[in-house]
Amino acid sequence: MQQYIPRTRLLASVNSGLTEAPVVALLGARQVGKTTLAEQVVSAWDGPGTVYDLEVAAAREALSATPERLLGRSEGLVVIDEIQRGPHLFETLRPISDDRKRKAVFLLLGSASWDLIRGVSETLAGRILFVDVGGLSLDEVGPDELDLLWMRGGFPRAYLAPGNAAWGRWMQAFTRTFLERDIPGLGSRVSPEALGRFWRMLAHRHGQTWNAAEIGRSMDIGVTAVNHYRDLLAGAFMLRVLPPWFENLGKRLVKSPRVYLRDSGILHFLLGIDDPAQLPLHPAYGASWEGFALEQTLIAHGADEAYFYRTQRGAELDLMLLRGGKRWGFEFKCSDAPRTTKSMHIVKDDLGLEHLWVIYPGDLQYPLGDAITACPLRWIRELRLRA
User: Rounded to an integer, what distance in angstroms lies between the CA atom of residue 372 and that of residue 86?
Assistant: First the structure.
C-alpha cells in the first residue's frame, strides 16, 4: 500500500485562500493531516516560512511573551499549529491583519472548533477564510479502496496501517491519547473514563436521534452533563451532530438532532470490530454504512446547510442539503439493489426536493422513479447540486 495519500483539492484550497485573505484556518480533528498539509504549503512557498507549534513549550512561551513584536515583524508565511492553545493570539492578529504594511500571511491549524470559532467571531471576522480538513475521501484514495476506507476510517495513519493488527494498535493509542491528553488540553475537567464510556455508548447509538435523558439514565448522570460530553466530542470533530429540518408543514416532526461518529474506523474500533469480515455480520452494519456515506457526501459537497428530516409517523430522509436555492435529498442504503419506498415519495413531496439520490455501495447508476436515482457512493463527487 502507498505510504502517502495526495490531498490535491485541499492543498489547492489552502493556497487559494492564502492569496485572498491575511489569515487562513485549517479546522479538523487531531491526526487528520493538517500538519502534513501545512508542511506542503510551506515547502512550496515562494519566500520565508516560519512554523510555531503551540504543543511545544518554547513556541508557546515565545508567543505568550511578545506576540505583537514577533508576529508583527514576520515576513512570508507564518504557520501556527494547535492555535486553540493560544486564544490570546486572535486579538493579536486582528490589527496585524489590517496593517497595510504587513509582510506576512498566517495559516492557523486548529483541532477544537468551538474555541477557535468563538475567538475568530470576536476578532477576525472578515479577515479569515476557513478550510475544513476531514478524513480521507474516496476521491483521494480511489473508488476501488471503498471497502478499506469504510473499515479503517479516514485518519491517514489508520488507513495506511500495514495490517489489521497495526490498525487496531493505532486506534488504541489514538483514542487513549485523545481522552487522556487532548481533551484535558482544552481545559475540560471531564474524567477520561467517563468520556470514554460515553463515547463507546454513542458508538452503539450511531445515527440515532439524540436522547440525552436516556443516555443520562444509562450513565447515572444528568442531562446537562450528557449534553456537555456531546459538545466536547463534537467540538473536537469526533461527532457529527446533524440538525433536523422542520418548518410549518402541518406535520408532527422530530426536532432533536441525530448524532454520528464522524470516522467509521473509530466507530468500528469502539464496537470491537477489528476485521472486515466481521462488519457485515454486525448489527451496526447498516448504521455504519449510513454514517460513512453521509460523511463522504459532506466531504464532497460541504457540511453547511445540512439536515435530516423525520415525521412522527415515520417518513424520513437521511440527509437534505440546501444548495443553489434548491433542496437535494439523500438516502443511504447498504443494499446491492436499492428500491424506492413509500417514505421516499412522501419526503420528496413534503420537502419539494429537486432530486433524491439513494446512495449505495454498488457500481451502477439507475433511475428509481421521477427525480429519484440510485447512485454508487464512488460517484458522489460527480453529482451537481445546482439547478
Answer: 48
